[in-house]
Amino acid sequence: MKILVTGGAGFIGSAVVREAISQGHSVLNVDKLTYASCLTNVRTVEQNLGYSFAQADICDGQAMAALISQFRPDAIMHLAAESHVDRSIDRPGAFVATNISGTYTLLEAARKYWQDAGRPDGFRFHHVSTDEVFGSLADTGAFTEDSPYAPNNPYSATKAAADHLARAWHETYGLPVVLSNCSNNYGPYQFPEKLVPVVILNALAGLSIPVYGSGKHMRDWLYVEDHAQALLTVATNGATGRSYNIGGGKDLSNLELVQTICRIMDQLRPAGHPYSDLISFVPDRPGHDRRYAIDATRIQAELGWQPKVTLEEGLEKTVGWYLANAHWWRPLQERSGVGRRLGLTA
Ligand SMILES: NC(=O)c1ccc[n+]([C@@H]2O[C@H](COP(=O)([O-])OP(=O)(O)OC[C@H]3O[C@@H](n4cnc5c(N)ncnc54)[C@H](O)[C@@H]3O)[C@@H](O)[C@H]2O)c1
């Protein structure tokens, strides 16, 4: 298949690009190359004849139309987004522009291409989203595909808006849209401002490891390569007009996650004291959702996808990867805002 991937120089998009190439697909990676991107993430596939890259903004309708009509994709997998909740609290405008207007622009370019091509049934527009659109759960239960939308921060609100646009473009225009909503991802190549790399890199530097609020916020964690495989499954086999929840099925509190990473660091890079000594509780994020959990029954039953990597295995691989790849993350720590506490200006 020919797949146009947006956001393929980011964390999850690059895992999708690597996985798609390894499955034999051709990929056009379209990315604006924002502060959160790194083309090194796709270095292992950039010599592959099936891989190409275009630097472009999804808000640029002409550029999107030209790239789509030149590449003639069988599927568009849309991952480009502003993705850091703390940044969305300080500067929501960039999130509205990329996540809402950018998604609208891409949907319109895809619709025109699909209509001009005679509305092929096999075409797919896969909109990649997050479980955060469903808001916060009480102590029990899990998000299903029918859970009501209740986003609580600017990031999740803009993703929710984009989900609604994608759904409407299917219902109104018949565009063959599929949607997926996934839990928190972790793994290699995750930008150093996100929780898992922050814990690893602060521990390594002997800096305090910030835990927001009480640390009791519950999350489901999924290894990024499992997510990439799930996304390719949805893009190639998902039913149009349908959404699929994706998760690892392993819920734990942020504090438990941080303690687990510290234990793995104690084994892989002993410091003479437990890394958990560095844990420090800091003021909570405004609008911080208390609990997310995913019911992934639909994707398992209908598409046969299951996560392969356990949380313990995935965290070990991830810590090992960051320990071995300082040349990747060190320059990224110099980028604007990284290493500073953001998102307290509610
Ligand atoms: N990280 C998670 O845990 C998680 C979980 C579920 C869903 N998601 C969704 O998956 C997608 C990818 O997330 P990620 O964590 O890899 O994000 P990321 O921030 O690591 O990467 C985003 C990529 O999009 C690109 N981009 C941003 N604005 C753009 C624009 N206007 N035009 C073109 N490219 C642009 C960036 O340059 C970057 O390469 C997002 O849509 C996100 O909402 C993320």
Automatic annotation (TrEMBL):
A Pfam family of the record is GDP_Man_Dehyd
InterPro entries from the entry?
dTDP_Gluc_deHydtase, NAD(P)-bd_dom, NAD(P)-bd_dom_sf, Sc_DH/Rdtase_CS
Q: Which family does it belong to?
A: Belongs to the NAD(P)-dependent epimerase/dehydratase family. dTDP-glucose dehydratase subfamily.
Q: Which terms under GO biological process does the entry name? A: nucleotide-sugar metabolic process
| Cofactor or coenzyme needed | NAD(+)
Designated name of the protein? dTDP-glucose 4,6-dehydratase
Domain NAD(P)-binding span(s) in chain numbering: 4-318
Q: Which UniProt keywords apply?
A: Lyase, NAD
Q: What EC number(s) is this enzyme filed under?
A: 4.2.1.46
Question: Could you tell me which Gene3D superfamilies the record lists for this protein?
Answer: NAD(P)-binding Rossmann-like Domain, UDP-galactose 4-epimerase, domain 1
What reaction does this enzyme carry out catalytically? dTDP-alpha-D-glucose = dTDP-4-dehydro-6-deoxy-alpha-D-glucose + H2O
Q: Name one GO molecular function term.
A: dTDP-glucose 4,6-dehydratase activity
Question: Which taxonomic lineage does the organism of this UniProt entry have?
Answer: Bacteria, Pseudomonadati, Pseudomonadota, Alphaproteobacteria, Rhodobacterales
Top EC group: lyase
